[in-house]
Amino acid sequence: MVQVIWLVVTVLALFTVGYLGYSRYLAQFVELDDSRETPAHKYEDGQEYVPAKKPVLLGHHYSSIAGGAPIVGPITAGVVWGWAPALAWIAIGNPLLGSVHDFVSLSSSLRHDGKSIGYIIGEYVGERGKNMLLWFAFLTIVLVVAVFALVVAIVFNAYPEAATASLVYIVLAVLFGVYLYQLNLPFLPGTLAFVVAMFVGVYAGIQFPIALFEPAARAPAETFVLFSGSGAWLPGASSFNGNTAAWVPLILVYGAIASALPVWVLLQPRDYLSSFLLYAGVGGALVAIVVGTFFTNPTQPLVTNLEPYYGFIGRSGAPLFPLLFITIACGTISGFHSLVSSGTTSKQLNKESDARVIGYGGMLGEGLLATVALATVAIIAPDVGGGIGLALPTFAAGGGVILSSFGIPTDFGGPFMALVLVSFLLTSTDTAVRLGRYMMEEIVGTPETPVEEFATNRYGNAFVQSLPAYILITSGSWLTLWQLFGGANQLLAALALLTATVWLANWDDSKQLLSTGLPMALMTTITSLGLLWLAFHDNLYAKFLNPEWMASAGTFAMVSAVVQIVLALVLVYLALSLAKIGYDNIKDARSSGGGGGGGRPQPSDD
């Protein structure tokens, strides 16, 4: 057994080197300049383009990118292959790949009026490449909305305390938005008052937990259940339970409404306030590991009870390469972050120099969350398997053990860590829906038909995203699609790095392309191989060529397997096609001497 603190020390050391050294170089490389007017000031409209103070925007950005995936991924990978491969991928991959990805996505969007990565690549390779990337991103967004809504519902079912506290801090966020942007009252005193009120809301959640229907077995006996019965009649109840199934549509409706509101009403203030809860959870757990190692005797020793390595073929029979790199996406590198960076964050950046701490530093912060998640599973050491259903209780239970180093009872620490997880997820859910609207607006351009009007309308677009997400969840097939979600996410990261590389190549022929080009090539190769494995081994070979499976599988199971094969192959085709288009553009730009446009787009011949 190894003390958990060494996992934390390893990550902190490499992250510190990355931020102090590599991020400084990248900031100079893309020529961040505070004398330039950012899109937030240039196009300020009080709706989407709203300049934000650096701590407020960091809170929004960090809350938006750090959803459930950096918790589910490391926990699942640690159980299957051991904590050492998972730790190595987080500690090395984050500063060299993921943080670079987030930073250059934000920087490139800044130089293109806050537009998305799809728009940016379209400026260089033409309308076909733009639409391919935007459709890829939009489909990924639907998967993101589905998984985040499901995970929030699972947490609300397991920890009804989190449901009450979440409602409280959403109300507080709206009041804080009015306080800041309508009443123009002092920032720091307001921050102090509302943060204190938010933690009071956490206490209220623990004292007055609520559920829609009969909750999970671990729920407190005093849980207030709004509706009688089990809710077994609800869509999806057979796959999860009635309470979880009941929360799903409410969360999707919340995400739709929140995504349509001006950013100052809910998004900015809520993300800023919830960031304090996140910092307390992640930072508190890291400090608790130090305290528990050197100063106190916690109820359970903070040592790894998982093996460091279970072999190349893990405990579930899955090969470490390439599936580890799909299983752990967020926490190391995530394409969803490019949509946040170039979707909402770039429209709120007050000055260019803020991009370093928010883009590069924010991703390092998510890596710390992934490290905490890995530490919780290393301590608890659950049995192999279980996916989301295993990961979420493990994070809360393991986090409660870690916080016991402060003398906090585990029956308080566990629900608190569940609240930390939910605060990440809710912010990511409605941010994802808002980003999906941006994607569709860029695909459609100027709407000319009623269908296009509906697709780009802020309420109609939310419906377009939420309905297929709800169908995915209630069909019961979502858990089997987790790695496809990871594959789509990682391929989107590769395409975002491709977009940045194309931008740099067209900007100036003296710009080196290794910082973005090598991670792009690595992620394209690994993720394509992972998706092909899922298509041909996990579905074609293990199912359709397996007589036992064919004899027992129903029609729905067969259709689901076919859909997974088709999805995997379509994702790989889109990614490789875009990579070819981008490569041709880079080659042409370098042969003609580069764009020389100071980071601005040059006309495309397509």
TrEMBL record:
GO terms, biological process: cellular response to starvation
Segments forming domain CstA N-terminal: 4-383, 392-528
Keyword check for Cell membrane: yes
Superkingdom of the source species: Archaea
Secretion signal span: none
Keywords: Cell membrane, Membrane, Transmembrane, Transmembrane helix
A GO cellular component entry from the record: plasma membrane
Coiled-coil segments: none
Protein name as catalogued: Carbon starvation protein A
Organism annotation: Haloferax marisrubri
